[in-house]
From TrEMBL:
Keyword hit for Calcium: no
Protein's organism: Physcomitrium patens
A single GO BP: tail-anchored membrane protein insertion into ER membrane
CDD domains xref list: ArsA (cd02035)
Name this protein carries in UniProt: ArsA/GET3 Anion-transporting ATPase-like domain-containing protein
Source organism, top-level taxon: Eukaryota
Length: 435
């Protein structure tokens, strides 16, 4: 078959990184090679043609040896115009080089939870969205949820997901759903429902019974303060507990993979300590309420008064139970994995080390560290790139020396030359990272 091929410039419209022939590059990800290019084919887009075109266009002769390692080609996108086919192709190394980590992630149909967390701006959302696309492509009905108050899931999927409900991801024939929970709104809903049903009325109720002495004790319980000026992390805890509540409903039983795109590290750490804190606070409230109720029933038996509403207590009890469930989910090694996302800088890696240590103390299972935005190797580094690369290497060395991090599986994700937005780009990223 006569195939003429040439590498052409990046195609921003499809949002996938690509290289022109002069800068064609082999990307190394965690010792595994991969590369990708855009090509124009005059003939068919059969795998053979793509393979031939790819090999003839993208690598210099000194790289021919390496080229033989690129056996698996996948078409990231393709479209036809007057001049033929225009393709973006990804190639990865021999299957022997491929990390088997993802096989373990997709194994089984019992529900699994993945929480992606790390410092602000390191790529948590992009990686969470790409993992969701990858799971869905592997046949898992998948839900990706953002509980970060500063959402970017909508931007990542290039679709409005801000409704606070589960929405199918547009334009893909995949079992893939996404949801952005507005944590502040979730807290407000909870707060309103509790006070409407008599939550703040616990105090009024006591006053009405002439039990003002209890008020001082109540003021130490911190619940009012908790809802008025919530500690950072409470919003997210309520948001996650809301998702857990959803997930118990039969119509959501289909989801076998649920991914949480969480807020930056500080929030996550506080979130982990919240179930214990709330358990203690709510436990105290409930204990006090019981005492009041027994006092109230004594009064009632004398004066025949009606007792106050217990709905607020029930809501608190339900929140407490959900919090305990969230804590159990976080700590369950069989069903949950917290994936730390970082970038190759000393600051980010130091923070990841602290995060790993805190997660470990909290009993949260962690297996993988994704180092995102690693500069791909190049034959012709500019001065800036050479310095940057050296700097990144220093940070990577830190990972292998760090007692908290070196036991983790380290996965590198390359820095792309275009923004990763929309499903085709996320698929491309996911195929490179989650292997
Ligand atoms: N490997 C990458 N190559 C190039 N750009 C990237 C890569 N990973 C992420 N980005 C870009 O970096 C920006 C931040 O990414 P993202 O929103 O995924 O980070 P985040 O950790 O979720 O941020 P936040 O903490 O603000 O929620 C986005 O513009 C995203 O497209």
């Amino acid at each position: 078959m006569a195939v003429t091929a040439m590498c052409i410039a990046p195609v921003s419209s499809i949002g996938v990184a690509s290289y022109s022939s002069s800068s064609s590059t082999v990307l190394r990800a965690s010792g595994r090679n991969c590369c990708f290019a855009s090509l124009r084919l005059e003939a068919s887009s059969s795998e053979k043609a793509v393979s031939h075109a790819f090999s003839s266009c993208s690598l210099r002769s000194s790289r021919i040896q390496e080229l033989s390692r690129f056996r698996r080609y996948s078409l990231v996108s393709g479209e036809r115009d007057q001049r033929g086919f225009f393709l973006t192709v990804a190639a990865v190394a021999n299957p022997v080089d491929v990390n088997k980590g993802f096989d373990e992630m997709i194994a089984g149909t019992t529900r699994k939870y993945y929480m992606l967390g790390g410092k602000g701006g390191v790529g948590k959302t992009s990686l969470a969205a790409s993992l969701a696309v990858k799971f869905a492509n592997s046949g898992h009905p998948t839900l990706v949820v953002s509980t970060d108050p500063a959402h970017s899931l909508s931007d990542s999927f290039a679709q409005d997901l801000s409704g606070g409900t589960i929405m199918p991801v547009d334009g893909v024939d995949l079992p893939l759903y996404a949801m952005e929970i507005n944590p502040e709104q979730a807290r407000e809903e909870f707060r309103t429902s509790v006070s409407k049903d008599g939550g703040t009325g616990v105090k009024d109720f006591m006053d009405s019974l002439g039990l003002g002495g209890w008020v001082d004790e109540l003021s130490e319980l911190k619940l009012g303060e908790l809802l008025d000026t919530p500690p950072p992390g409470l919003d997210e805890a309520i948001a996650i507990s809301k998702v857990v509540q959803f997930m118990q409903a039969p119509e959501y039983s289909k989801f076998t993979r649920i991914i949480f795109d969480t807020a930056p590290t500080g929030h996550t750490l506080r979130l982990l300590s919240l179930p214990d804190f709330l358990d203690a606070s709510i436990g105290k409230i409930l204990k006090l309420k019981k005492k009041i109720q027994s006092a109230a029933s004594a009064i009632k038996s004398v004066f025949g008064q009606e007792n106050g509403s217990d709905k607020a207590t029930d809501k608190l009890e339900a929140l407490k139970e959900r919090m305990i469930m969230v804590r159990e989910i976080f700590r369950n090694k069989e069903t949950t994995e917290f994936v730390i996302v970082t970038i190759p800088t000393v600051m980010a890696i130091s923070e990841s080390s602290r995060l790993k240590s805190s997660l470990e103390k909290g009993g949260v299972p962690v297996k993988r560290l994704i180092v995102n935005q690693v500069l791909p190797p190049s034959n012709s580094d500019c001065k800036f790139c050479a310095v940057k690369r050296k700097d990144q290497k220093k940070a990577m060395d830190l990972v292998s020396e760090d007692a908290n991090l070196k036991t983790l599986e380290i996965v590198q994700s390359p820095l792309f030359d275009l923004e990763i937005r929309g499903v085709p780009a996320l698929k491309f990223m996911g195929d490179l990272v989650w292997r």
